[in-house]
UniProtKB/TrEMBL annotation:
This is UTP--glucose-1-phosphate uridylyltransferase. GO terms for molecular function: UTP:glucose-1-phosphate uridylyltransferase activity. Keywords: Nucleotidyltransferase, Transferase. Belongs to the UDPGP type 2 family. It catalyses: alpha-D-glucose 1-phosphate + UTP + H(+) = UDP-alpha-D-glucose + diphosphate. InterPro entries: GalU_uridylyltTrfase_bac/arc, NTP_transferase_dom, Nucleotide-diphossugar_trans. Residues 11-271 form the Nucleotidyl transferase domain. GO terms for biological process: UDP-alpha-D-glucose metabolic process. Coiled coil: none annotated. Its EC number is 2.7.7.9. It comes from Candidatus Portnoybacteria bacterium CG_4_10_14_0_2_um_filter_39_11.
């Protein structure tokens, strides 16, 4: 029996401009927006590390230096905290740079979410790998990526994150059509990018979170060659192409999904994480109650 390679590498596309959050993202990457006391990207990385990821590749742009600095050492800050005997803070700051091996790749083309994967091919190599977006994360008993990895180990096939949606959601997400082969696991028959509600019977959305086999690179290159001027390169379309050659599965993820990519959802994430915080949760709840 062929041994299935474990997933150790994670790609995080992080070159977007974050225009929905302007002007705050003019000089600050959207991935660095705080959710309570940590930037959203740190939640993403912590989830990955808890799943067994050891190597994290950020595909970023020229305005993303703060992101790189966050996952690097900061000797001046560490010395300051040590001098004033703030050991707990010192340890938490030092731990950030030690969570994983971090690599940074500059994105060369900015028209579609398929390009970051091609730009990082030389780092990802011929091993299976994971992809998540830098502005959304899950909280649950078992990390999202670990759930996907477990399915991959059983199936030896690409696995994507699935969540139920409604009519309005079909126009926001890629939609998965397929057959449920066991509770929560679907064999994908079709992937449709943001269809109108009447264009599909499925209400199963494809969210961020993928385990991909290296054959995706060939599918992306083929899709790229067929693009018309002005068209974007979508990962979902490359996966639809790959679907004709090998099975792809979708897994319903157990856990709470937080999307910090829009103002309202970012605020919701902050409120819910604050309420769950042992230090300030009760007092914050009382404050919210007093407003109504």
């Amino acid at each position: 029996m062929t041994k299935i390679k474990p997933i150790k590498k994670l790609l995080i596309p992080a070159a977007g401009m974050g225009t929905r959050f302007l002007p705050v993202t003019k000089a600050q990457p959207k991935e660095m927006l705080p959710v309570l006391d940590k930037p959203v990207i740190q939640y993403v990385v912590e989830e990955a590390v808890a799943s067994g990821i050891t190597d994290i590749i950020f595909v970023s742009g020229p305005s993303k230096r703060p992101l790189e600095d966050h996952f690097d050492r900061c000797p001046e800050l560490e010395a300051h905290l040590a001098e004033f005997n703030k050991i707990e803070m010192l340890n938490s700051v030092k731990a950030i740079s030690q969570m994983a091996n971090f690599t940074y790749v500059r994105q060369k083309q900015f028209y579609g979410n398929g390009y970051p994967i091609l730009d990082a091919q030389h780092v990802l190599g011929n091993d299976p790998f994971a992809v998540v977006w830098g502005d959304e994360f899950f909280v649950g008993k078992t990390p999202r990526l670990k759930q996907l990895m477990n399915a991959y180990q059983q199936l030896n096939a690409s696995v994507i994150t699935a969540m139920p949606t409604d009519d309005a959601g079909t126009k926001k997400y890629g939609i998965i059509e397929g057959k449920e082969i066991k509770p929560g696991l679907f064999r994908v028959s079709k992937l449709v990018e943001k269809p109108e509600p009447q264009g599909t019977k499925s209400r199963l959305a494809s969210l961020g979170g993928y385990i991909l086999k290296p054959e995706i690179f060939k599918a992306l290159e083929e899709e790229k060659k067929n693009l018309k001027p002005g068209e974007e390169l979508y990962l979902s379309k490359a996966m639809a192409r790959l679907l004709k050659r090998q099975p792809i599965y979708a897994l319903l993820i157990e856990g709470k999904h937080y999307d910090a990519g829009s103002k309202l959802n970012w605020l919701k994430a902050n409120v819910e994480m604050a309420l769950a915080n042992s230090e300030i949760g009760q007092e914050f709840k009382e404050y919210l109650t007093s407003l109504f």
